[in-house]
Amino acid sequence: MTQDFSFDPDQPLAELLPLQEDLPPDHRSGFVAVIGRPNVGKSTLINGWLGQKIAIVSPKPQTTRHRQLAIITRPSAQVILLDTPGLHKPQNLLGEYMMDQATKSVPDADVICLLVDASSRPSEADSLAVHDLHEKASDIPVLLVINKIDLVPPQDLEARITAYRRLVPFSSQWIALTALEPSGRDELFEQVVSLLPLGPRYYPADQITDQEERFIAAEMIREQVLLHTYQEVPHSVAVLVNEFKERSGNLTYVGATIYVERETQKRILLGKHGQLIKQVGQGARAEIEEMIGHKIYLDLWVKVWPNWRKDEHRLRWLGFALPPSRS
Ligand SMILES: Nc1nc2c(ncn2[C@@H]2O[C@H](COP(=O)(O)OP(=O)(O)OP(=O)(O)O)[C@@H](O)[C@H]2O)c(=O)[nH]1
Ligand SMILES: [Mg+2]
Q: CA of 77: how far to CAs of 27, 86, 192, 201, in Å?
């Protein structure tokens, strides 16, 4: 379901030329890996930059599971962002997949945006993640993004910023902001562009992601599950869209299965008299309709797949492209 991004350096220049309509000579472009521990605000920042939701966001850690491209085209630059799963210690095969997704593109990035969460102090886990990142990509410029400063009491802010700057002494630039607000995002965007090399557009100006609407629809359903459930349920859920078909000019049928790991989780997800799944469906329908611009009919099914997060075969079936070593 995910597609590997790749820019082929051997691609004939002529094939790229239609994308280059009168670009200024100082046009910049490149890949920016947006990296950080779970829940620090990576997907929030990217959606904010795009002005549109392509990546799901939730207060639960480990929301993003796949690497996903977000392409921002401006007259002076094309920035290709990689939203990545949060850096964490994997507990199962799904976690290993997520860490692979998070780290495999880092060495090829032109810039790394390393996000940290200012609302808490740097932890041991932050140090480990930063150390690993530095080992993988010591020669790539790192922009330290100290996010969520709206949650820090003003009297603590300076000390918190200093603590995070000490954590990442190798960063070439830093910024403290709240990803929810445009002013900080704009300033950061300018910093990112200034670190990119001169280069052409790699994608058409109107392309904003490498993911199909069908994949994003599945993610939007999962987002609603994350928002409506607690404890281990959010982590035990996967969503597969089985059918995404335009039935008439302004109605699309979306049939999806929500997989959980246990019968008890299925009961929680259905809720009393089916109330919870109804709320999930209503929320997801609104999001998907906004994305595709017309009405959908959403059919949701819930199925129990014991331990799917540890099961290679089931993970592959659900669209997780596990590294080849597992084949
Ligand atoms: N108050 C505040 N909340 C923020 C800010 N940025 C993000 N959030 C919230 O933080 C939570 C996590 O945001 P995400 O964008 O899903 O974080 P992520 O880094 O993509 O998380 P994973 O995908 O799990 O790695 C959400 O509830 C966001 O609304 C911020 O600047 N201020
Ligand atoms: Mg995310």
A: 5, 27, 10, 8
> Which atom belonging to ligand 1 lies closest to the Cα atom of 38?
25
Cβ burial of 285 (10 Å; 0-12, 13-18, 19+) is: buried
Residue 194 alpha carbon to ligand 2 centre in Å? 25
Top-level class of domain 13-195: alpha beta
- Residue spans of the domains in the chain: they are 13-195, 213-326
Residue ranges with CB less than 5 Å from ion ligand 2 = 42-43, 63-64
pLDDT, tens digit (0-9, with 9 covering 90-100), for 260-275? 999 999 999 999 999 9
Question: What's the rounded mean pLDDT across residues 19-44?
Answer: 94
Over residues 190-195, mean pLDDT: 98
Residue 75's CB is within 10 A of a number of other CB atoms, namely: 10
Please give the pLDDT value at position 249. 80
CB of residue 119 inside a 6 A radius of ligand 1: no
Query: Ligand 2: distance of its center to the CA of 43 in Å?
Result: 4
> Cα angle at 219 between 238 and 31, to 5 degrees?
120
State in words which class domain 213-326 has: alpha beta
Could you tell me the pLDDT band of residue 6, with boundaries at 50, 70 and 90? Answer: low
